[in-house]
Amino acid sequence: MIFKKALVVLGSFTAMMFSTVAMASETATTGGDQYASLAAALAIGIAAFGGALGQGKTAAAALDGIARNPAASGKVFVPMIIGLALIESLVLYAFVIAFVKIKI
Question: What are the structural domain ranges in the chain?
Fold first, then answer.
């Protein structure tokens, strides 16, 4: 229940992140090489922004849950760390995809 809002935010920003990376790779493959670096920077920036928002929401929800029930901190901490790792991996995937597809 605690991570429900964070997962919704994560899902929406993941979709936005991968659509931006797809647009950047399409620009690079259709001959827009002069804008490839700008597209990669934009894709990575949006991915990092979305990841930061998702991580902030996750940490806030976990801290709120721990503050309401300190005895449940052990049950909240491990899923929070796993969620943060998954959010960060999506940002790294966007980073890798942007550089592999655009071939900078």
Answer: 4-102
CA pair distance 68, 45, nearest whole angstrom? 35
Alpha carbon distance 27, 19 (integer Å)? 12
Question: In tens digits, what is the pLDDT along the chain, a chain of 104 residues?
Answer: 555 554 444 555 555 555 555 555 555 555 557 777 788 888 888 989 999 999 999 999 999 999 999 999 989 999 999 999 999 998 898 888 887 877 75
Q: Which tokens sit at 28?
A: 């690079």
Choices 1.20.20.10, 3.40.50.11260, 2.30.110.10, 3.40.1190.20: CATH for 4-102: 1.20.20.10
pTM score over 0.85: no
Handedness of CA 47, 48, 52, 53 (dihedral sign): negative
